[in-house]
Design a protein that fits this description.
The chain has 137 residues and is α+β, with helices and mostly antiparallel strands. It contains one helix and ten strands.
């Protein structure tokens, strides 16, 4: 075995040990610190939101679109609505697309004013869009 190949294997083993130690000692935060951060995770994260249709009929779908910053392509997003002064997830999800955009179709069945937001997660924690309001009649 050549010395270059031997050094490569030792380096790989050393990196794996360091990552394992970070996981055991510091949890996920330690493991993330041991890995190289993506360019997106180093900037402040944000999510924009646009509801296409300010008024929909009960049972109809509303399209929610927007862009993200600081979230990786493929990161999951979930639409939430305000219910009894708490944000509750709806059965409407999406993933961040190439170009940092997303689109969610959500069926709203409860009549009244629906306050909606999009939630996501990056290496720094949870990220939320500002809320939008849709009238369901």
């Amino acid at each position: 075995m050549t010395s270059v190949l031997r050094h490569h294997r030792y380096g790989r083993a050393l990196g794996t040990c360091a990552l394992s130690a970070a996981l055991l000692s510091g949890g996920t935060a330690g493991a993330l610190a041991a890995t190289k951060p993506s360019p997106d995770s180093t900037m402040a994260a944000s999510i924009t939101i646009t509801a296409h249709g300010n008024t929909v009929k009960a049972g109809d779908k509303v399209k929610i679109t927007g862009r993200t910053k600081g979230l990786n392509v493929g990161a999951p997003l979930v639409l939430q609505h305000m219910k009894n002064d708490k944000w509750v997830p709806l059965r409407a999800t999406a993933k961040v697309k190439k170009g940092s955009s997303y689109a969610i179709l959500a069926q709203l069945g409860t009549k009244g004013m629906e306050k909606l937001r999009v939630a996501g997660v990056n290496a720094s924690g949870k990220v939320y869009s500002p809320p939008v309001t849709v009238k369901v009649s």
